[in-house]
Amino acid sequence: MARAAAEVPGQFRRCEEQTRTVQSPLPFFPEQASNFAGNVDELFSFILVTAVFFSTLVTFLIIVAGVKYRRKRPSEVGEQIEGNNALEIGWTVIPLILALGMFAWGAVVYVNFRTAPKDTLDVYVIGKQWMWKLQQPNGRQEINELHVPVNRNIKLIMGSEDVIHDFYVPAFRVKMDVVPGRYNTLWFRPTRIGKYHFFCSQYCGTNHAVMGGWVTVMDPAEYATWLSGEVGDVNPVSAGERLFTQLACNTCHIANGTGRAPSLNGVYDAKVLLADGSTVTADDAYVRESILQPKAKIVAGYQPVMPTFQGLVTEEQILNLTAYIKSLQSQPVPAKGAGIAPAAATGKK
Amino acid sequence: MPTKHYLNATYGIRSWLLTTDHKRIALLYLISVTFFFFIGGFFAMMIRLHLLTPSGLLLSADTYNRMFTMHGVAMIFFFLIPSIPAVLGNFLMPLMIGAKDLAFPRINLLSWYVYVVGAAFTLYSMVTGGLDTGWTFYTPLSTVYSNSAVAPAVVGVFIVGFSSILTGLNFLVTIHTMRAPGMTWFRLPLFVWSHYATSVVMILGTPVVAITLGLAAMERVFGLGFFNPAMGGDPILFQHLFWFYSHPAVYIMILPAMGVVSELIPTFARKQLFGYHFVAAASMAIAVIGFLIWTHHMFLTGVSTYAALAFSFLTFLVAIPSAVKVFNWTATLFGGSISLDTPMLYAFGFIGLFLIGGLTGLFLGSLGTDIHMHDTYFVVAHFHYIMVGGAIMGYLGGLHFWWPKITGRMYPEWLARGAAVILFVGFNLTFFPQFLLGYLGMPRRYHVYPPEFQVYNVMSTAGASILALGYLLPLIYLTWAAFYGRVAGPNPWPATGLEWKTPSPPPTENFETTPVVTWEPYDFHHRPDLGLDVPANPALAPAHGDD
Asked: What is residue A304's three-state secondary structure?
């Protein structure tokens, strides 16, 4: 954190590699570097044309009327015109149609943005006052830097240690709030090799303005080299496994299903049958909630005996625990004492 | 000038501080909101000066954050929300409907004292640590992490809300029960209609923000976990509750300004307002739909996709009544007899700026573009076009228009026209570059920024200094005119409203005898008393609803 604070002006010093962003002295469109950039800019241009048309029309009419109907004598009065229903209907319906068009177009772009494809490369992101910690799938960690391969679907799974932040990459036209207490995801496919600003765009306190950094989009081969070039300081799975023992999770969650709590083998991404008869997918958010608020969802057949770990584990440690539980996905599921729902209840797996 | 009027009816400080005359209370409000306007304006100047250079010119990060937060709090809660309703509305509503006062004169005075108490708490917060949460008070930053004087500020805003509720209540009862004989619903000036819509929003919305801020204050002071996720609370819940009021609050600011413009345009075009019923209905439609669109501030918080779709759809619907108003105002000009007196310049300025503000709202209401533009300077520019370009243009237009009624004296016309032009130019120079900054990707609330954003920031700061001059000029010449201006007479424009049928300044009881209304709103043709050239045998007055 101290490092980030010390870098205040430097972080925004014009990057030598960053020559493309500003060429014109009065730039208008930011660089387009992701699959969404074109979509957003096209929709923007459509609304812009409509807006310019209407503002020009009204301004023109006001000027015409102001000249043509200017007062000639101090005691002159205007004509007696009460209104015109046909006009009223016309200028209600035409803007309504245009507005609905904008809504529909915007909805298509947004739904696409909110629906991540399956084949993503997942990067975990933790925001905290006032820095970003990012973790690649192999555990390599970065601070205020994100390296991604070009033309690959990337999904950021984001949590916050403290207040609400927001991860924003203007060149990609994407942003999403990073909210404490939940995971928000953000996906994009970088389409152009280069280095781009990312910002925190939700006000988060003193150094909000310097809570940013650079996304580096690389050639896939270079990315692979970069990823292996420096071994991750901590492998998230082994760190998670250590925590699992340190926090004594393993005394109840016994792998063979004989513990007071369900075995976690194979549970990640599977359906879990709950005490109230409903099922839930054991995704990152469920794992996180089960650690922090264990009584929120009780697995069928078990007692609510697990204590909360709220305040005992950091967001990063939760990510490591999640990575460890994810690694148990392929482990043999015990016949009795498994967390996952029987196939009959879910029709899956 | 009449020898006896509300200003000289009684003397002494007590006669002002204990007055129940709506006109005097309006002047108390005028002084208070002007005070907050210039406090907020000072913060704004500090912000703009600081942003001249990418690394920031004069403030530390913490001071900058306090500046923009206190700018927002002062301007929104203590200037914009009370400005037109509590000053012009208070003064004019009873005059326009032919009443002696509001329905509850003492509650009216109480509302001003409530405002003063709320203001005292907020000023206390400003001088004892300031406030750095943003005017939106987002949790858990405001309730857990902020090191500023959040509690007194929140309590101040909580209290001042009750002042709005009391004013709204007073207006609704007054409009329902105190209209003069012949003043039917569809003879009401549109200023009154828009205040009716505003009052509905004030009464239904303000209690929700009061509850929300109450919960936030309890979380901050007593550590109760309503919004703090570490205690099982939900920070997104705060945003829902906050915007449930704070989005309609935008309409509290803009609807009264629309009401003012609906008075100015017929008066200075000397022509009935085009589509009176549609304009009145549009005010009510805005007030109702305005309650159903708050989540459009939250498309990127992780709300469900379905919720986002519904709220975006409704957001586009609320654009329609605003568009209808603009078209009707424009149509009114055709066939009119237009003079470009200062109030009309403000009305034109309002239409132009409101148009840009409204149309840029489409970019933010559309889900696809909001992904990129949310929380950038585009949003800052958009809402300043609505609130400053719209609401303040309307407020200043109204102040000039009714200044002869309020003070009995005229302002200097050519100086005022010049100031209106300076304001318009300064405003656009300040805020238009911020649209460009926003699309380029500069987030809001940044005390330092990457150097590629500098050129537009410099333009914006240059514009702000012109804008500041534009605001200082009316302060000076309107004050001067109140004492030394040319005597105006009862109806200098002339205009058709009832408020112009009584002397300027009006007597304490407003009218010598209760007026009887026999004419349609803004009808110049059937008003021989105005002394204008009415065509011989004017067409029969068009029937208006229930008279």
From this structure: coil
